[in-house]
Amino acid sequence: MKKWLSLAIIAALMVTIVAACSGNNNEPAASIQSASSEPPAASASASASEQPVAEEGWKADTSPIKFDWYLNFAWFPNKWGVDPTSQYITKKTGVELEFIVPAGNENDKLNAMIASGDLPDFITLGWWEEGVKKMVEGGLVESLTDLANEYDPYFFKVADPAKLSWYAQPDGKTYVYPNASSSPKDFQKFGTEFASNQTFAVRKDMYEAIGSPDMRTPEGFLNALKLAKEKFPEVNGQPLIPIGFHEFGDIGNYSFIDYQQDSSYLANFLALPREKDGKLYDRSTDPEFVKWLKVFRQANQDGLISKDVFVDKRAQMEEKISQGRYFAMLYQRTDFAAQQNVLFANDPNSVYIAVDGPANAQMDPPTLAGPAISGWTVTLISKKVKDKARAIKFLSYLISEEGQKDMYLGEKGVSYDTIDGKDQFKPEVLELMNKDRSAFDKQYGSSHTFWMLMDTNMNLQWAPPSVAPFKQLEDWTKGKTTSFSQYDLINPPANSKEGINATKIANEWGKILPKLLLSKSDADFDKTFNEFIEKRDKTGFADLMAYRQKMYEENVKKLAEFMK
């Protein structure tokens, strides 16, 4: 899940169908409150059932119309109308899109729009972002269920009731619709096909050259980093970086732990539970977690952690991955898909492969985050939308099977055809998609180049098999993937007492984490860590956990209802 995807993430859409998210701008940073445990679609669907038979409303009016669509992702590179897929959809529906993408900090741009009340027609952002709550509670966006009742009952035919219920607000209405979302029934149906983005990856040729060591134990982990640095001190004249992580930020690092969302690759690799006996569990103080933080501290003391990892941003990391400068990474595989392709083209043995990474003392297999009902992003319709009826009808088209197929496969005869009795990409199209995703996006625009409302489960019927150099990374996670849906949407509102304290605690952790890893000794580590815990507890951590516990219990009940 989290601050879900760049060109590299989009690249991954060609090789795997998995939620997102995780996330570096695809991991959750803050959440909105899922305030209703009653399915909102119950009353909405009832009123819809009193209307005429729900047919595709968008077909009634295909006259030209242009909607502005804001994407809260500065890295999004594509434009509507330059590729045959978007051209085909515009010709079919009459809808043209003008994407608005922030040039700098996403939150600054979004907050400025919210403050002015001047929102574009559609808005897409991460489900965890506080902006969602601000727009809903500020009355700046339309209720999708109200729009559907008034203009397009077909929406209720194609929308997933569980997802509408999950995102219901206290008024019983739903204002957002997620992409890459998997309900409990989806997980039950497709679970064996689900993969996780979370991997511990090593450079194949280097790993094999040092004997493919077991890196699950602290000793084996440190020894492997040491051997790699000794055998490969440089990569094309540049120093080897023995171990890489996600970007360090204000609230921590997802590779270790993000305190805002309790999102932790390391804890998942250690198979640490998020609850015990129905009570939320503080993984950050678990002895195994602390032990492994000290392993990384020791790695730094031994000269095995480059100073670059503490300051590099996504762009610098992507450049170094494409150069093969990292030996190992505790990192989201979809975030380096484009770079993996570069390495594969240069030398297939220089790619990154997933291997068993840090493990607990019992050597339990990891419990990696898989698809969740919250999805990756959510899309909203502004109250200033040009045409309410056309907007909800276009959204209904996009989430319908017809819309999903159009967005994924494109136009028949152009990017796909019926081959051996199955609708699938044409061979030359698939070849380009696997070779150069950026060129594919511009030349064809299919395979969810425009991912705002992609249904990653529906698309399984059209998805081609995963291929090298992505298949091994994806396959390694299968069987180790679980749903953490019940832990989404449990954070308090940012302006509440608990929410303010949550931000203070997370920001303090963001400062402390690098200090822990840079500590000169375990004793210094313990002192710094204990001071953080003491400060955390004085900053209302118990009240924060009590709030999260209440929301967690509501989520468990709600998810159980979805399975009936």
Helix content: 40-55%
Q: Tell me how many strands there are.
A: 19
Radius of gyration: 23 Å
**What's the story with the biggest beta sheet?**
5 strands, mixed
Mean pLDDT across every amino acid position: 89
Percent of residues in beta strands:
5-15%
Q: Tell me the structural class.
A: alpha/beta
Shape: globular
Largest sheet: spatial strand order: 2-1-3-16-4
Distance between the termini: 25 Å
Tally of helical segments: 24
- Low-confidence regions: 1-52
Notable characteristics:
564 residues, globular, 24 helices, four-stranded mixed sheet, alpha/beta
Question: Layout of helices and strands, plus pairs?
Answer:
Blueprint lengths: L6 H6 L28 H9 L15 E7 L12 H10 L1 E6 L5 H11 L5 E5 L3 H8 L6 H8 L2 H5 L2 H6 L10 E2 L5 H7 L7 E6 H6 L8 H14 L2 E2 L2 E2 L1 E4 L7 E2 L3 E2 L6 H5 L5 E2 L2 E2 L6 H15 L6 H4 L2 H9 L3 E7 L4 H10 L5 E3 L13 E2 L7 E5 L6 H12 L1 H9 L6 E4 L2 E4 L1 H9 L1 H7 L27 H7 L3 E2 L14 H21 L4 H17 L2 H22 L2
Parallel strand pairs: 1-2, 1-3, 8-13, 15-19
Antiparallel strand pairs: 3-16, 4-16, 5-13, 5-14, 6-7, 9-10, 11-12, 17-18
Structural commentary:
Helices cover 42% and strands 12% of the residues. The protein is an alpha/beta fold and 564 residues long. A 5-stranded mixed β-sheet has the order 2-1-3-16-4. A 4-stranded mixed β-sheet has the order 8-13-5-14, with helices on both faces. A hairpin with a 2-residue loop joins strand 6 and strand 7 (238-239). The longest helix is centred in the last third of the chain and has 22 residues, at 541-562. The two termini are 25 Å apart. Mean pLDDT is 89; it is low at 1-52.
